[in-house]
Amino acid sequence: MSQFTQQVILGLLLGGIYVAVALGFSLVWGVLNIVNLAHGALIMVGSYITWTLFVNRVIRAPLLFTFLLTFGINLVIVSLLLLLFTADFRSVTTTYSGAGLHLGSVVIPYIRLGGLLVALVLAGILWLILNRTRIGAGILAVGADRDAAQLVGIDLRHLYALTFAIGAAFAGVAGGIISTFQSITPTAGDPYTLQSFAVVILGGLGRVSATIVGGLAFGLIEVLGQSAPGLGSGYANAIAFVVLVLVLIVRPRGLLGRLA
Amino acid sequence: MSLLALREVSKRFGGVNALSGVSFAVEPGEILGIIGPNGAGKTTLLNCISGVARLDAGDISWKEQSIKDVAPYRRAHLGIGRTFQIVRPFPSMTVRENTAMGVLFGRPHSRLQPAAAMKAADEVLELVGLVEKREYPVLRLTVPDRKRLELARALAMRPQLLLLDEVMAGLNHVEVEQALSMVRRIRENGVTIVLIEHVMKVIIGVCSRAIVLNFGRTLAEGPPEEVLKDRRVIEAYLGERYAKDHESPPRPGEGHDGP
């Protein structure tokens, strides 16, 4: 039983990372309608606000074009990072890196717990931005109907740039969390693009709570899946994506999604 | 000085001339009606004025300044508000939140925060009679209420010119009467109005002037009663046969002999 509890806790902690990683991704997807394949690279770097001006040109472009552009940005960022930091593995090691909170036979690693807390704080900040500020109101309006938003006086280009910037900034913080428990290389962010995509699809688009639920659920599924009898860590992704497909069959908009 | 002036405005969609060489001016304080059969270019005209559609030729000026190349959101800041024929509220928001968007972003120099904007929204909702339903999600509103909301969102921007795209369509007699008095009230508050309408009663009831569009051209212009009697207008609008039927014989007891 304590073995199971341990797995659940580890799953939730991993899920916390996914929440952090997917918040910005979900925002950019929901409002700008861009599935940002460069999100992983943004996570690894953190602050690519300059790119926003660039992205403004593809807002109304077809899906494939935005794929091409964001994939291109991904390659550029990764290459720049390779040049700057080389391909060596690096990691952030703190004095409490190996330590954990012992509750009976269950261990909660401090680092991971911190990651989860930061992720939840991030989600809270995003919720506050969206629901309590002028900019957030604009973001929600543009996400709902961009033409009507223009006609109540919202500057679309400005807002798109801001949204992308916020998404990138959140990616940056997520990158900070990741660096504390995983070796980083310029290409290490790529899997997180895929994870973000899965989390947003699982939770649903268009609200912060959906990303939290999606992220935690995805983390749980991955950890529980690979610890199931007869399966190993190699199956983690496979199981998670099978569950993802099953959820989509039952709830096409995700667990909590509200935008189609 | 005219509030708004259109000079030889043309707009094509592919091979179709949605508007060809339309010119007219809107004077401060008037209610101008724009009528015409389906496909005459009425909505395209409003799209050109609000900036959602770009002109292919001609010019539009606001208080004698060309706004041809001005972005839609800036035109909103100048004081041009509009409603859509098919209402377009923000679906995920409540009535009050929808209206607050107009307050937040439509008033260029106010840097109101959302909480204050919500209060300002209530005043507008009072005017259109939606204040009791302010916490409703918009998807729960009936059609007439959605039209009211559309109006509220535009009014929240404190426009000087309000473009109304068939706000009366789909309303019953009583609701049309209510809407008419609301339009009059808005005018009395100093807002100039351009409205597109199919319901003749509306045009005659509130408009000081009417313009008839047909196939993207101006067919007639003048006081509503006269314009609606114009034979070309009756033909375009109601069909040639209707025009003929109503020309002869003159109704018994009426002294004159047709338009």
How does this model look, in words?
The complex is a heterodimer of chains A (260) and B (259). Chain A has a two-stranded antiparallel sheet. By secondary structure, chain A is mainly alpha-helical. In chain A, strand 1 and strand 2 form a beta hairpin. Chain A is globular, with a radius of gyration of 19 Å. Chain A has one domain: ABC transporter involved in vitamin B12 uptake, BtuC. Chain B has a domain of 151 residues: P-loop containing nucleotide triphosphate hydrolases (Rossmann fold, 3-Layer(aba) Sandwich). A 6-stranded mixed beta sheet of chain B has the order 6-7-8-3-9-10, with helices on both faces. A 4-stranded antiparallel beta sheet of chain B has the order 2-1-4-5, covered by helices on one side. The longest helix of chain B has 16 residues. The two termini of chain B are 34 Å apart. At the A-B interface, helix 6 and helix 7 of A face helix 2 and helix 3 of B.
What kind of assembly state do the chains in view correspond to?
heterodimer
Q: What profile does the largest beta sheet of chain B have?
A: 6 strands, mixed
CATH topology of one domain in chain B: Rossmann fold
Separation, N- and C-terminal Cα atoms of chain B: 34 Å
* Net shape of chain B: globular
Spatial ordering of strands, largest sheet of chain B: 6-7-8-3-9-10
* Main beta sheet of chain A: 2 strands, antiparallel
- Proportion in β-strands of chain A: under 5%
Strand and helix order of chain B: EEEHEEHEHHHEHEHEEHHH
Which H/E pattern describes the elements of chain A? HHHHEEHHHHHHH
Mean pLDDT of chain B: 86
Which class do the helix and strand fractions of chain B yield?
alpha/beta
Helix tally of chain B equals: 10
CATH topology value of chain A:
ABC transporter involved in vitamin B12 uptake, BtuC
Class inferred from helices and paired strands of chain A: mainly alpha
Number of strands of chain B: 10
Computed Rg of chain A: 19 Å
Low-confidence stretches of chain B: 249-259
The largest contact between protein chains, plus residue counts on each side, is:
A-B, 23 and 36 residues
